[in-house]
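Hey,
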Amino acid sequence: MTQGSESVRFGKPTTDTAVHRFEQWARDTPGASAVIAGAASLTYGQLDARANQLAHHLLDAGLPADGLVAIGTHRQAELVVAVLAALKAGGTYTVLDVDAPRTGQQQLAAAPPFVLLTHAAHQARLDDGRGLRVIRLGGAAAVIAERPTVPPTPSRRGVTAALVFTGGAVTRAVPVSHARLLAAHDSWAEVLRPTPEDRHLITTGPSLTAFAAGWTRALCSGGALVVAESAPWKPDTIRQAIDADQVSVVHTDPVGAARLLLPGPGPRATAPGVIPKPLTGADPGTGAGGAGGTGGGGGKGAELHALRLVAVTGGRLYLDEQAALQSRLRTGVRLLNVYGTTETAGTGAWFELAQLPRPVDDPEPLSLIGTPFPGCRVDLRDGQVYLTPADGGDAIPTGDLAALRGDGLLAFGGRLRDRITLDGRTIDPHRLESVIRGHEGVGAAIVAAVPGFAAVSRLVAYLAPPAGEPGWPPGSGLPDIDELRDFLADKVPAEERPRAVVRLRTLPRTRGGREDREALPRPAQAVSGHTVRGAGKYAGAADTGPGAVSAVIGCGALVLGFVARVLTWIIWPGSTDVTGIPLPWAFLFQVLYMFECVAFGLGVLFLFSGRRRMLGMGHGRRLTTAAHLSIVYLLVAWWPQDNFYRLAAKQDWPQQAALVYVFNIPLMIAAAIVAYFATRNQSHLFDADD
């Protein structure tokens, strides 16, 4: 079966490139916003001048034709400058993951560059003793200067423009030619219909396809690219940027879309043609009343006034999930489920709810990827998807499975490599997972074969609740193994029913947003008839509610502990993330975080009330003050200390050393002072009684 989507734009030879398109906009609209990054924002004219300057530095450094330029920085405005400079100088660019230094080092090993463009803060982590040629960004290379535009080289048409890294567990560099980069932009443009007024925000890391090959969607259409100023995007800063910078187009993954549009219990999704199960905890009386409703019931989607399109890519998005997201958006806002690969520069197939020709009564098992992008072609060979990119060439096997429905839409069918062979049978986990999602308490599921006793593998179901599920303990609405097997009794054969259940708050994901089967936790006992309680990602207000704390400590410490918990999310977002950890361990870690906050509250209370009581014990004021402050420090220090440690890279020796000297040594000193105080106190009492 072949399904194609033709366009008059494609199939014609051209010497155009993405950088030529950008330069045309720079000439026509030099004062228009190109990169929005707070104080580091750039107009098209400024961005072009900065890129020209850096391109000359690269040429002066001897960059050969097709020379690889690796770029690693948190400052995404300078990253965009570097990408354009590499292309202007006739080189090939690749973007490194600086958020995970080990990944960045693996990327450098997979694609050794001619030169590394980075900042001093990242150089030591990325170089790792390789002796790379380095040009520091932000120095002389970043100075705006009136230098001529680097002349284009038409003879280089068709050579590699970029090496883009895949977002899976294994780091792999994929070459993307100039032709493919531009054809992917043109293909996206026919679906996206971009305008110069659009402001685009890409939530995924810049080393991944969505950004590394998707920056063209903004800068080749005259629009603006909204990027993080000096640190990676965080969920809260994404929403702030969307509202403050009037973002109209968001490119994200399923988790990013849920965080953006489903921050809490949501309404019943009633998108046209879809009758999904309600989100857990939804109030039927506050529903939006249709796709593109206002997101009533406290939904935050209504705040995103400038938003006109959300493109979700990177992982499978089921039809009920897509409807729930759509229901949080205003009328007329489009939400696309995009299926693409790095090899095709992010193009492939796309689906939005408006493509449904008739209502769907059972959306939970369906993940529709729709129809091919303009200029692309989808071939199904024995069920496997082969993609022909918009610039033509040979069809590329994706390793994914799909089926063509009677209504002409493609339905995703899982991945070949995920198939499970068990007791001589081949089990399709995607089909089984889709059936499990039909249980009203299950929002997401992964089925894996896990060795049990005597190395005999058994099927284990990893379950996560629907978005916005408010229960306590987390995942309390998830079925146990007996309930799940009863639910599956008349739906799947007995040998395909899981023998154990692991409850998670959310499923682990790769950097690209795909469910990460390699990162699934091992159950305590992967044998028949077991349920392992689990909690997971996105610790929120429900994780440490007042009811769980008030039974242990007094009202004052509770209030201060709650304040500390809130400050944790603000100061150290993600530090209490326990993704993929099964219960009871995830629950125990959450209890630990609770005790740290409560200890902080007790320390603050003791700071103001403890010294007067200690003075009555008969010691001198200096020793009492030292012991008092030591006790306060022993109580309050655990909260900031553990949050800093949890976010620190294990190989970041300067930061590790700083934390040890700032926290651990003072803790030892404080403990010694308290021990001395306690010893003196005991001797005094003994002498008096004697």
